[in-house]
Amino acid sequence: MNEIEAINILKRIEVHRNPMSNIHxxxxxxxxxxxxxxxxxxxxNNRWIPVSERLPESEQEVELSVKRIxxxxxxxxxxxxxxxxxxxWNEDSFCCWEYEKNVHELDKEKNDFKIPExxxxxxxxxxxxxxxxxxxxxxxxxxxxxxYKEGETNE
Length: 155
Prior knowledge:
By secondary structure, this protein is α+β, with helices and mostly antiparallel strands. It has helices spanning 3-15, 27-45, and strands at 49-50, 62-70, 73-84, 106-107, 112-113, 118-123, 130-133, 137-143. The chain is elongated. The mean pLDDT is 82.
């Protein structure tokens, strides 16, 4: 059984909360089912998605699982970044890209260039909002969580 099947079974039990049902749940049992559904849905929403299965939307900031192979060994790490599909114009991008003749092909009519396809790392705490091409193997990605808000609890 996988998480989706478990959620569906638990939701079917929830449907039977009406008084005419043969299933009579105590309040703490209902709360336990609600918490189990919530935990499974959160786990499902925060799972790693292999790039072979699906790519994120172009320019969607995500967490990446990256593998680097060197002469000294194989290293795995995570990094915040995004994917470019090669169809986004510089003027439509959320990043400030520098035009480089060897990297970008300038559309003279539009006076703009498309961002090359690839994975890019984001550096938030640099002097400027920086981006760097990731030339290692990106294995999987997952959506970023919402930032913490003061006063939030897990209840």
